[in-house]
Amino acid sequence: CGNGELSRQLARRGYMGAYTGVDFSPALLEQASAAQPPNFRFHQADLSSQDWDASLQIERYDAVLAFAVLHHLPGMELRLRVLRKIRLLLTATGHFIHSEWQFLNSPRLKTRIQPWEVVGLTAPEVDPGDYLLDWREGGQGLRYVHHFSEAELEQLAAKAGFEIIESFLSDGDNHRLGLYQVWRVVD
Q1: Least packed by Cβ within 10 Å: which of 68, 91, 114, 145?
Q2: DSSP string, the chain
Q3: C-beta separation of 70 from 101 below 8 A
Q4: CA angle, residues 153, 158, 163, in degrees to nearest 5
Q5: Residue 112 contacts residue 104 (beta carbons within 8 Å)
Q6: Separation of alpha carbons 178 and 147, rounded Å
Q7: Could you give the CA distance from residue 115 to residue 124 in angstroms, rounded to a whole number?
Q8: Paired sense of beta strands 40-44 and 19-23, if any
Q9: Contact 168, 150 (CB under 8 A)
């Protein structure tokens, strides 16, 4: 849920249903939960843990949104485990809506790619499509990012029990920095 911008937009537009925001950062959750309707709940969770969904009380959702999330989860096994749990949280007619950063579509962002040796790894030790980016706003920082192809996402969707029903690029100066997809639950 990040800083809660989506939940604030839903509330401003009169959304009256339930909303559950999940994030790893206590600071972002504090921002997100400020001045929200009582039916909007927020939970801290580490998606890399086996039981990240335990605090959600086995609820079923019509939709799960994950903007700029999957590409920060290292390893196909972890991504698949998270997606299978999301699939179980959805109703039979539920949708998973997500965005994945397409930073390789930006010449400027490509210059931020760092060698894996900076963190003591080598390229053969990571998955194809894994990158380490210099992410510095007022300092120095490194960020793990997986660059998804549409074919890779199609395979991931099928393995997790979904089918892709919509896919488009948006965001950034060239409108190609974010790949957005809507997945539908399949039996």
Answers
A1: 91
A2: -TTSHHHHHHHHTT--S-EEEEES-HHHHHHHHTT--TTEEEEE--TTSTTTTGGGTT--EEEEEEET-GGGS-SHHHHHHHHHHHHHHEEEEEEEEEEEE-GGG-HHHHTTEE-GGGGT--GGGS-TTEEEEE--SSS--EEEEE---HHHHHHHHHHHTEEEEEEEEE-TTTT-SEEEEEEEE--
A3: no
A4: 85
A5: no
A6: 11
A7: 12
A8: parallel
A9: no
Which tokens go with 152?
């890779």
CA 24 to chain centre: 12
CATH numbers and ranges of domains, the chain: 45-104+147-185 (3.40.50.150)
Among 27, 178, 60, smallest CA distance to 4 is for 27
Q: pLDDT per residue over 8-30, tens digit each?
A: 999 999 998 889 999 999 999 99
Angstrom distance (rounded) from CA 68 to CA 71: 7
Query: Which pLDDT tens digit goes with each residue over 82-134?
Result: 999 999 999 999 999 999 999 999 999 999 999 999 999 999 999 999 999 99
Q: How far is CA 94 from CA 38, 62, 88, in A?
A: 23, 5, 10
| Cβ atoms of 163 and 182 closer than 8 Å | no
Amino acid occupying residue 180:
Y
